[in-house]
TrEMBL record:
Methyltransferase type domain: residues covered: 81-128
Keyword Transferase among UniProt keywords: yes
Source domain of life: Bacteria
Molecular function, one GO term: S-adenosylmethionine-dependent methyltransferase activity
Biological process annotations from GO: methylation
The protein's name: Methyltransferase type 11
Gene3D superfamilies with a match to the protein in the record: Vaccinia Virus protein VP39
Lineage of the species this protein comes from: Bacteria, Pseudomonadati, Pseudomonadota, Betaproteobacteria, Nitrosomonadales
Parts of the chain that traverse the membrane: none
Key words of the record: Methyltransferase, Transferase
Length: 262
């Protein structure tokens, strides 16, 4: 059980950082990707875990949309308080699951993914966003760890997380039976804390998205849960229409002996 369950949102470093200039930049970039992805995904139940300052399901057309967090949140009102590595959700009950920056801050990221696989319906979709270690954001993490290796107080969110490489995460998903449908990158501007520097380096956003997409600060994955041996049934629109058994039809019968004689 995570120790964050008794921490209020106003005290939690994630909540504070997402309200900073850099956090607002990340929210703006990621919101666009989530909005584009969820609009074409269908089902009955969807869940967003964490980062509740972003309504990542706002464009979803799924009827039942839920949110959860692992710490006491006074600013937003989630439907569920729980840890993401042990979800109180029935097997195969979610059609869409969203994990925004959960794996790099999870105490057991493998277990978090296993729980995601357990609660998802076959052919359901898993959306993940995470910090890319092979980027300027990853370099900032490396330098902070190098310069403040013995000073935990000098490191703040999100530099306290363990950034997971995209290739490594793809391997984990493949082992659990997920097929990676698409990967996109965002946040190409260096992680400056001051908004004025974001405006000065705004050109890097357009330049990076076009020419250096692979080194974006955040990756966004859309994956689908595949089940071995399962063949989805599709309607056969070319099949003959079903007719009522009450319709009178001409029948065939064998000719009688008299009819044969004639």
């Amino acid at each position: 059980m995570s120790q964050l369950l008794n921490t209020t949102a106003s005290q939690h470093p994630e909540h504070q950082w997402l309200n900073s200039a850099l956090g607002r930049y990340l929210r703006q970039e990621e919101q666009v990707l989530y909005d584009q992805a969820v609009v074409d995904l269908f089902g009955f139940n969807a869940l967003q875990i964490g980062c509740l300052q972003m309504d990542l399901l706002r464009n979803s057309r799924i009827a039942h949309r839920y949110s959860s967090t692992e710490y006491a949140n006074v600013a937003e009102f989630p439907h569920l308080y729980c840890c993401d590595d042990f979800l109180p959700i029935a097997d195969a009950s979610l059609d869409l699951l969203i994990l925004p920056h959960r794996l790099e801050f999870s105490e057991r990221p493998h277990q978090t993914l296993r729980e995601a696989e357990r609660v998802m319906m076959p052919e359901g979709h898993l959306l993940i966003s995470g910090f890319n270690p092979l980027s300027l954001w990853g370099m900032a993490l490396f330098l902070r760890n190098l310069l403040h290796s013995n000073d935990a107080a000098a490191k703040s969110f999100p530099w306290t997380g363990s950034f997971i490489g995209l290739g490594r995460l793809k391997d984990w998903l493949a082992l659990l039976g997920f097929e990676v449908v698409s990967v996109q990158m965002c946040c190409h501007i260096p992680p400056f804390e001051q908004e004025s520097w974001h405006r000065r380096f705004g050109f890097m956003g357009k330049l990076g998205a076009k020419w250096l997409s692979a080194i974006g600060g955040v990756y966004f994955i859309v994956a689908k849960k595949r089940v071995v041996g399962m063949t989805p049934l599709k309607p056969s629109w070319k099949a003959q229409p079903v007719t009522s058994p009450l319709v009178v039809r001409p029948t065939q019968r064998k000719p009688s002996q008299r009819e044969r004689a004639e």
